[in-house]
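[Q] Does anyone have a clean structure-token version of this?
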Amino acid sequence: MFHKELGIIGIGKIGTALLRVLTNSKAIDTEKIIIYDIDQELLQNRSKELKVDFAESSKTLVKEAKYILIAVLPQVIDEVLKEIGSLITSDHVIITIAAGISINHVSKYIDKQVGIIRIMTNTPLLVKAAASAISSNEHIKQQELDFVKRLFNELGIIVELEEKHLDAVTGLSGSGPAYLFIIIEALADGGVKMGLPRAISLKLAAQMVLGAAKLVLETNKHPGELKDMVATPGGTTITAIHEIESAKLRATLIRAVEAATLKSKSMNENA
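[A] Here you go.
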């Protein structure tokens, strides 16, 4: 019925990054991908660069592909859904990665029972280090869910959750890279204050954060246990930790996740 497996609508930064990873992986054959973007020059350039077919319109793409990945900003997803909604069949699978857009919201534009998958990912997918969470409705078949999970595993890690948790995922790992960028910048500033060259300080700070994250993931040790391994009695680290706790950094980060989660929920309610 379909000539293509995956159709991607929207090839901005996130859509292009996802496309680049997939075309370099073995998760899907390049000839089974088709793309569309409202920017025709960008569309044709990406098609030529990554050797994938492009559609003349979003409607044409929907007729060609089974899995429709909508990789546009939350502000314009309704416009896309209005364009393609009447063409969606029960054989399609809709995938959305727009923050704050619920499965129920997507289904409002489609008058058929169709499988819908919502994924919350983050910008580290640009370097194949994404932390993604996936939810689906009752119309998704297991093999369809497995196919999409296999695609997003190429971008990093993916966990399956009930949709009610995806706003918290948005607040934690979706927005989280921005929190860490601020922390890395601040740590680098501290190094500069103490006399390190800017470029060296930034490189050390970023690598340190990367290494600390790898320790958590690869040892499965609690962060508190790993912290205690560094903080020797009467040493430099415990002295610094005292300053961190005095400044209430821990509470600030908790509030940041809470605030972003509540904002995501409000976007769902107002959509």
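[Q] Thanks! Anything notable?
[A] The chain has two domains: 4-166, 174-269.
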